[in-house]
Amino acid sequence: MTDATLTQTGREPRSAGALIGRRLLRWGLYALLCLFALYYLLPLFVMLTTSLKSLEEIRTGSLVALPREVTFDAWGKAWSGACTGIQCEGLRPFFWNSVMMAVPGVLLSTLIGALNGYIFAQWRFRGANLFFAFLLFGCFIPFQVVLLPMARMLGIFGLAGTIPGLIFVHTIYGLGFTTLFFRNYYVTIPHELVRAAKIDGAGFFRIFWSIFLPLSLPIAVVTIIWQFTQIWNDFLFGVSFSSAGSQPITVALNNIVNSTTGVKEYNVDMAAAIIAGLPTLFVYIVAGKYFIRGLTAGSVKG
Amino acid sequence: MAPILDIKHLYKNYGSTEILKDINVTIEKGDFLVLVGPSGCGKSTLLNCIAGLEEITSGSIEIDGRDMTHVSPKDRDIAMVFQSYALYPTMSVAKNITFGMKVRGISQEEQDRKLAAVAKQLQIEQLLKRRPGQLSGGQRQRVAMGRALVRDPALFLFDEPLSNLDAKLRVEMRSEIKKLHHRLGASMVYVTHDQIEAMTLATKIVVMKGGVIQQIGTPSEIYNHPANTFVADFMGSPPMNLIPARAHSEGNGTKLEIDREGLEPIFLDVPRKDLPGDVVVGVRPEDLAEAGYRSGDTVQRAAIRVDMVEPAGADTFVTTHMGGKMITARLHAETVAHPGEMLDLEFDLEKVTFFEPTSGQRI
Ligand SMILES: Nc1ncnc2c1ncn2[C@@H]1O[C@H](COP(=O)(O)OP(=O)(O)OP(=O)(O)O)[C@@H](O)[C@H]1O
Ligand SMILES: [Mg+2]
């Protein structure tokens, strides 16, 4: 009898305590997550609101306040009127420079990476492991190290200071990762597929084109997002290997922010920064669900 | 007429490991050759060598009278069905079947005609638009067969095509493959590690172990006259009983003495004079019968102690111990036997095979 009451009274508060504890933990977790989300989103919020304010309002108002009067003047100026040094055409020409650099760069490095990955995964050759190790090393090479030799190479090829030169550099330095992505995807595909196709009479490229490429959508999306983000956001190569007419948008953004003639136009700077970041955001929104799927998906059931 | 497949002194190494050693195999047109052996014995490797998917280290391969040793797979006039079916995942069933013809530049009308014929033959007409991912295992198997059939090759190669199917479907497809073989009169090489598949399908069986051919023969030769204890043990289910015994010369025959634990030895008289002192007696479970079911001079009776009784529907399996080994007898379903009791069995010595104990070779 005493035993029973003891255990009962002993258990009840404990279970209630556990319940409260669990609830507290849950709320604590949410609070923490919200804090982090805020931490990440606050700068974006400030950028967005500032870009929609007039200079007058920025000077008088608070940093985190919503704009009293929404104006897109700063966006217009950032796009086509802001000065990047002596030239005052805004970001527009540089935006197109970046597009012309990023699109071919992404496509080339992805396609070549797919071909490389196909070879590493399905056509093992003597020394394949050594080659692959070198390629992986290429993923982690610090880019500062290659600046001077690359500048010399581009000079020799006659590509110095041109957009094709930038495409070349980005393609080369993207190959490590693109190859790795495709190789890891293709090793999950049974070798018997290649064997069957060989017996069917298909050759190396035919098998790649008709059988492997159509399988590659998920990993291609991952690679494209990755490469696009890398190339679009790159500053180091852009600033090192471009000339006045071929600068990518990241370099132009830097120039807008740093060219101090008169008052500092925070609203224009913020609008320019958002414009420079929009394409990567766009790519994530369009292809993001494939990105997640591609990262987790692997094997192909035959 | 030249044989369809003629393999001479084939060796295959991976690095310094010998995988296949001195393989010699010949098959005639219309033969159904089954390669059988335990896992890892090199069956798939041999098949891939025949297909040209693996370079051979030395030796020669002729297909339909032409030297194919260094010819690429697409020019060997073969078709192959893989264990995983290896269907192209992004292509429809129809495209899977016609891919080979498309690659070879065969006209669209011809492709359509052949596709229709094969689809009809395999009853997969209603599946042609589907992707491989939308098919059941058995249907995939059919499509893989279809892809091979449209080639109409000199030689078909099958690498364990049924091993991914459930038991019932496997039996069904097995008889279908057999029918197909009869209808087409095609020549086939078929890999399996299922000895029942080997027995039922083959006109000729090659038993392999560790990259070495143990025996080549018709199913009945392999079953009734195994070349060594490995083949005897591998083929047949339950396998052949291999009973160690001592042979004593006696008159114009030999007396075999088989030890038993806790019981008198069994003595059997064999009308042979060529047996060594120690010998392994190979008896199929079905050649051990209940007393009274067999007759003839070669049948001898012995009482055994029953260890276990396993009714299996059509048969009842009775096990006992002899010569330190567990021995199985396949008896009639209505046999009455109880563990621990004695039971009279008859040995059909006509059907017994003798092996040398150390080398395992048949005497
Ligand atoms: N690429 C390779 N490199 C080295 N050894 C290999 C290679 N491929 C196969 N082997 C070895 O060759 C031997 C024979 O392999 P194989 O695939 O022919 O066996 P198998 O008889 O088909 O077996 P299973 O019934 O399991 O399919 C195995 O021991 C295997 O480890
Ligand atoms: Mg195999």
Strand content of chain A: under 5%
Average pLDDT over all residues of chain B = 91
CATH architect. name of the largest domain in chain A: Orthogonal Bundle
Q: Work out the helix count of chain B.
A: 8
Strand content of chain B: 35-45%
* CATH domain class name of the largest domain in chain A: Mainly Alpha
How many individual helices of chain A? 13
CATH superfamily of the largest domain in chain A: MetI-like
What is the CATH topology of the largest domain in chain B?
Rossmann fold
Domains of chain A, number: 2
The coarse overall form of chain B would be elongated
How many angstroms does the end-to-end distance of chain B come to?
Answer: 35 Å
User: Do you know the CATH architecture of the largest domain in chain B?
Assistant: 3-Layer(aba) Sandwich
Strand order of the largest sheet of chain B: 6-7-8-3-9-10
Question: What characterizes the major β-sheet of chain B?
Answer: 6 strands, mixed
- Most extensive interface: A-B, 19 and 27 residues
| Range of helix content of chain A | over 70%
Short summary of the structure?
Chain A has 13 helices and no strands. Chain A has 302 residues and is mostly helical. In chain A, α4 runs parallel beside α7 (163-186), α4 (92-122) packs antiparallel against α12 and α7 (163-186) packs antiparallel against α10 (217-233).
Topology:
The complex is a heterodimer of chains A (302) and B (363).
Chain A lengths: L1 H50 L3 H6 L12 H8 L11 H31 L5 H13 L2 H15 L5 H24 L4 H9 L4 H9 L4 H17 L2 H6 L7 H10 L7 H31 L6
Helix pairs in contact in A: 1-13, 3-13, 4-7, 4-10, 4-12, 5-7, 7-10, 10-13, 12-13
Chain B lengths: L4 E10 L2 E11 L4 E5 L6 H9 L6 E6 L2 E2 L10 E4 L11 H11 L4 H15 L14 H13 L5 E5 L7 H18 L3 E5 L2 H7 L2 E6 L2 E6 L1 H6 L4 H6 L6 E10 L2 E8 L2 E8 L7 E6 L4 E3 L8 E7 L2 E5 L2 E8 L2 E8 L9 E7 L4 E3 L8
Parallel strand pairs in B: 3-8, 3-9, 6-7, 7-8
Antiparallel strand pairs in B: 1-2, 1-4, 4-5, 9-10, 11-12, 11-14, 12-13, 14-21, 15-20, 16-20, 17-18, 18-19
The complex binds adenosine-5'-triphosphate and magnesium ion.
Membrane topology (chain A): Multi-pass membrane protein
Family (chain A): Belongs to the binding-protein-dependent transport system permease family.
Main location (chain A): membrane
